[in-house]
């Protein structure tokens, strides 16, 4: 796993040992950032269920202004901290807590890009969307990028609507934006 483009291109990232964390593959990450090309520079990023920090660190490499990474696993937090330190990124803020607790406690924060990449088949994307919706944490031009198993379905969730999807092997990527 590595940073695939931008200022930190080629930097290797550590992964969390074992099978509990499933980092987004470079091929999928490349496809996501091709879609987000115009939205990433200067963006404020939220990475829920951050895992290794892979998505947030890629966004920072591509010019995002700031990234907030939320992860409750202490093992994953250690890996994220090592990845941040290895890259020398100062714009990354790691918060060690449950994603839902974070959303409940930080209701005033707004983001341009929100990554939701939780364990599959547990309804965690839907729960995240519900908390992100009230009050709305996405800026008007922002994008939510949710990763699910290919066989999972999402519905548009007011005030968000599904704008695009992509399938890559057993993974499905959902792009949601605020309804106009």
Automatic annotation (TrEMBL):
GO biological process, one term: rRNA methylation
Keywords: Methyltransferase, Transferase
Gene Ontology molecular-function annotations: methyltransferase activity; nucleic acid binding
Name recorded for this polypeptide: 16S rRNA (Guanine(966)-N(2))-methyltransferase RsmD
Keyword Methyltransferase: yes
